[in-house]
Structure formats: structure tokens, C-alpha cells
Amino acid sequence: MKKMLGLLFIMSILAACSSKPVKEETKAAPVPPPVAQAQTPPPAPQTQTTPVEASKAEVNPLTDPNNILSHRNVYFDYDKYVVKPEFQSLVEAHSKYLMDHPSARITLQGNADERGSREYNLALGQKRAAAVKQAMNVLGVQDKQIETVSFGKEKPKALGHDEASWAENRRVDLVYPGEQ
């Protein structure tokens, strides 16, 4: 009986392993009726950049007279070193430029008018440069991008001895490398 059960077991395994060949259908699958396909727009024409367009793309925003970045002076009231509200947008624009260009550097040159001693005006010029730097730092500019220096009354913009000339000399110049 054991032989018979063993034989049945083997036969059942062989039977389970055998398979009937599947008859492959030679009919092609029915083709659905044509559906209107969405029109794809033709590819955009390749345009050549003309020299005029290329020069527009290469305009340096720091030197473009139509760009706020071409303005480089922050003016101060007499004996003050607080950035006035009318120069806040200028400081913000230069700050944004510096944040967008992490390798860019700027020097803030503090100046004073001719009134007061040399030492006093050097200190006042430094405080003015530091005030602009602080405003830029608050806006997100890194310290390593900003250098401050004071010229005091040694680098006047206007040479007169009147209020208009003095007002021109109470300033911080924003200077990028390669500029005077």
C-alpha cells in the first residue's frame, strides 16, 4: 500500500506540473475608432539674439542710470548718523543686490562736512557708515560682504563753504570693488 500511495503521490505531482498548451489567438485586437487628438501647439520658433538684445541682457544694474542701484549716496542731517526714511529704499535695493550676489562686496565710506575737528568728523563718518551697515545687516546682508571706512572731512564732494555744500558732504558713499 505504501508503494501505491507513493506512486499516486508522484503521479499527482507530475499531473499538477503538466500544462495544456494555450491556443494563441491570431486575431488582432480591435482598433478603436479614431478619436480627435488635441492639437499640440507648434514648437516655439528659435529666435536668434540680436546684438541689441544681448547688450540689454548684459546691462550692469549697478551702472544702469535707470536702476536705483546706480544711486550711491546716503545723505545725513547735520551732526546725525541715522539713515533718513527717504534713503531706506536705496539701502534696501543695495541689500537685495548683495543678498542675490553672495560673492559681491561693498565698501561704505562715511563722510562729514568741514565743520568740526578732524577726529570728530572721522568718528562721525564711521558712525554714519556703521548705521548703513546695520540697516543692511537687518535686511539680511552678511558682515563679510560689507566693509566700513571713514574719510571724515578729508574727501569732500562739494568744495563750497555753505549749507548746500555741507549737505552734499554729509554722506555715506556705497562703493563696489573697482570703483572709486
From TrEMBL:
Domain OmpA-like: 63-180
Key words, A-Z: Cell cycle, Cell division, Cell outer membrane, Lipoprotein, Membrane, Palmitate, Signal
Membrane topology: Lipid-anchor
Cellular localization per UniProt: Cell outer membrane
Major location (coarse): membrane
Family: Belongs to the Pal lipoprotein family.
Protein name listed in UniProt: Peptidoglycan-associated lipoprotein
Organism: Novimethylophilus kurashikiensis
